[in-house]
Specification:
Blueprint: H1 6-13, E1 31-39, E2 46-53, H2 63-75, E3 80-87, H3 100-106
Parallel strand pairs: 2-3
Antiparallel strand pairs: 1-2
Length: 110
């Protein structure tokens, strides 16, 4: 099975949302890094995926739910053995991380 790409994983994560904001976590700019590590043998190739992300604020009450949502979504992808989600606070999230589509959807001009 070919190694998943970062773009494939980010595309899958567009189905994950912060329940308080009607924009997916990728377009919100919450995903900082995706790392894919091949594991197993050639005949049983799998991958471990690590997602480094942040939240819109350190006190976000949904941090456990959002992390669980990301982990579950990545682990649904073919060939993924395990997903790890690391929440980080540096660099701090700000509205400048919003994608153009998210800015339009939220009516925000930066």
């Amino acid at each position: 099975m070919p190694t998943l790409t970062q773009d494939e994983i980010l595309s899958a994560l567009k189905s994950c949302y912060d329940p308080e904001i009607p924009v997916n976590i990728v377009d919100l700019g919450l995903i900082y890094e995706v790392a894919v590590e091949p594991v197993g043998t050639e005949s049983d190739a799998q991958q471990d995926v690590t997602v480094k992300m942040t939240l819109t604020s350190p006190g976000c009450p949904e941090h456990v739910n959002i992390s669980a949502q990301v982990k579950a979504r990545v682990e649904q992808m073919p060939g993924v053995r395990n997903a790890t989600v690391n929440i980080v606070w540096e660099p701090q999230w700000g509205p400048e991380r919003l994608s153009p589509a998210a800015r339009e959807q939220l009516g925000i001009e930066i």
